[in-house]
Design a protein that fits this description.
The complex is a heterodimer of chains A (112) and B (115). Chain A is built from no helices and eleven strands. Chain A has 112 residues and is mainly beta. The mean pLDDT of chain A is 93. Classes of the chains: A mainly beta (112), B mainly beta (115).
């Protein structure tokens, strides 16, 4: 079945440093979504990427979707303590009833 | 902004007991999902539901699990005979399905603890 790998599993940074998490799918995706989950919370939708090579920005967050639509990345510039949480990518194949296959997530901690 | 709601927020049950987890999806949404997340692990797909029937289910969703949309509002997940390994957060999600717009909105989750 479809697998979505995500690295690193953990990342600890000093406030102000950059952070990147990478996501790789075993199959070509229709789209990929990114979610943030705060400790004890539920996944909160951040963004969806649909087009090959797409790049989207949300303030300090930059999301990329690979040309082959099999990989994606999330980059945070100048992290803040409010960025703490687990970032999940979730991929969807075409015709799969919109089921999302989640990566294992990257837990980001930020030292003030 | 409309939200997916779930009740209860926390359910404690004895092994072998039946539990029903409830969800109220966003009102104009058409596809409904259950996911689970064992503590510290990734979110795992359980089942999708559309047009009053299961459209896809994972290998986790065995005969002990069932879903229902009894009244056009609630969407329930039943576990007939709970096992210790069923302890997890269970998230309900819904989607409107508006062309390419398929953002899944997650509910706050129900923490199930099986003793």
């Amino acid at each position: 079945g479809q697998q979505v790998m995500q690295i690193p599993q953990y990342q600890h940074v000093q406030e102000g440093e950059d952070f990147t998490t990478y996501c790789n799918s075993s199959t070509t995706l229709s789209n990929i979504q990114w979610y943030k989950q705060r400790p004890g919370g539920h996944p909160v939708f951040l963004i969806q990427l649909v087009k090959s090579g797409e790049v989207k920005k949300q303030k300090r967050l930059t999301f990329q979707f690979g040309e082959a639509k099999k990989n994606s990345s999330l980059h945070i510039t100048a992290t803040q303590t409010t960025d703490v949480g687990t970032y999940f990518c979730a991929g969807r194949r075409g015709g799969s009833n919109y089921k999302l296959t989640f990566g294992k997530g990257t837990l980001l901690t930020v030292n003030p | 902004e409309p939200e997916v709601t779930q009740t209860p927020s926390h359910q404690v049950t004895q092994m072998g007991q039946e539990v029903i987890l409830r969800c109220v999806p966003i009102s104009n949404h058409l596809y409904f999902y259950w996911y689970r997340q064992i503590l510290g692990q990734k979110v795992e797909f359980l089942v999708s539901f559309y047009n009053n029937e299961i459209s896809e289910k994972s290998e986790i969703f065995d005969d002990q699990f069932s879903v229902e949309r009894p009244d056009g509002s609630n969407f329930t997940l039943k576990i007939r005979s709970t096992k210790l390994e069923d302890s997890a957060m269970y998230f309900c999600a819904s989607i409107r399905r508006d062309r390419a717009l398929d953002t899944q909105y997650f509910g706050p989750g129900t923490r199930l603890t099986v003793l």
